[in-house]
């Protein structure tokens, strides 16, 4: 039995290009499974339904390897689960080398498939590391230019000092102090902590 699998990461993305490629193979809607979900793992509804249907000798067609998933270490494990444990085949349309129908148990074919998967895993990991490095460098550069990240700090109102003294004397509660300042109790507590920290730094 031949099956198709398609995936996009977000609900507003289109599956059309992948579905067209699978339908050109002669696959109809009954045997095409599609998810609109992240490729970070394989816990996807349609994918899991497909896996439950797979039997030895069946073939799964995907447009490209990243449609199967994004985590290449998990892809390698899933690939071996499908081909070795289930005895089914995988065909990646955009990469003819990844077509296990050609393996026929030949050591060379299996070796080539493993090498390609490992290479893709390495490239994907390098890409992720480079992205993280560029993000870190971008954040450091922005901070050096004075760019602030996160939510902007709430400015303390003019009556803050008077309200703080009233709280410290026990005249009002934390809630009353926050209400007077028109902020949450959490914000009032944060201001108090900042004041105590600044005082300690001055006396250190």
Describe this structure in words.
Helix 7 (174-181) crosses helix 8 (185-203). Helix 1 (16-23) links the parallel strand 1 and strand 2. It is built from eight helices and four strands; from the N terminus they run βαβαβααβαααα. It is 53% helix and 10% strand. Strands 2-1-3-4 form a four-stranded parallel β-sheet, sandwiched between helices. By secondary structure, the chain is α/β, with parallel strands linked by helices. The model has no long low-confidence stretch (mean pLDDT 85).
Descriptors:
alpha/beta, 53% helix, 4 strands, four-stranded parallel β-sheet, 204 residues, Rossmann fold
Largest sheet: 4 strands, parallel
Question: Topology as H/E string?
Answer: EHEHEHHEHHHH
**Helical run tally:** 8
Task: Choose one word for the global shape.
Answer: elongated
Give the termini distance in whole angstroms. Answer: 76 Å
What is the CA-based Rg, rounded?
Answer: 29 Å
Give the CATH architecture of the largest domain.
Answer: 3-Layer(aba) Sandwich
Q: How many distinct folded domains?
A: 2
Sheet with most strands: strand arrangement: 2-1-3-4
Overall helicity: 40-55%
CATH class category of the largest domain: Alpha Beta
Mean pLDDT: 85
Beta percentage is: 5-15%
Indicate the low-confidence ranges by residue numbers.
Answer: none
Structural class: alpha/beta
CATH superfamily of the largest domain: Resolvase, N-terminal catalytic domain
Q: What is the assembly state of the chains in this entry?
A: single chain
CATH topology of the largest domain: Rossmann fold
């Amino acid at each position: 039995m031949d099956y198709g699998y398609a995936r996009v990461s977000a609900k507003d993305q289109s599956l059309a290009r992948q579905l067209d490629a699978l339908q050109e193979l002669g696959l109809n809607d009954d045997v095409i499974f599609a998810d609109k979900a992240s490729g970070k793992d394989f816990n996807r509804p349609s994918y899991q339904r497909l896996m439950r249907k797979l039997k030895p000798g069946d073939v799964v067609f995907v447009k490209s390897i990243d449609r199967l998933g994004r985590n290449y270490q998990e892809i390698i494990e899933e690939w071996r689960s499908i081909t070795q444990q289930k005895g089914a085949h995988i065909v990646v349309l955009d990469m003819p080398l990844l077509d296990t129908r050609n393996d026929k148990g030949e050591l060379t074919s299996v070796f080539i498939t493993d090498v390609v998967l490992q290479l893709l895993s390495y490239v994907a990991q390098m890409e992720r590391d480079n992205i993280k490095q560029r993000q870190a460098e971008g954040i450091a550069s922005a901070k050096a230019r004075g760019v602030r990240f996160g939510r902007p700090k709430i400015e303390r109102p003019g009556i803050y000092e008077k309200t703080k003294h009233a709280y410290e004397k026990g005249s009002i509660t934390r809630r009353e102090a926050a209400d007077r300042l028109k902020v949450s109790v959490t914000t009032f507590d944060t201001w108090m902590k900042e004041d105590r920290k600044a005082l300690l730094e001055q006396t250190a």
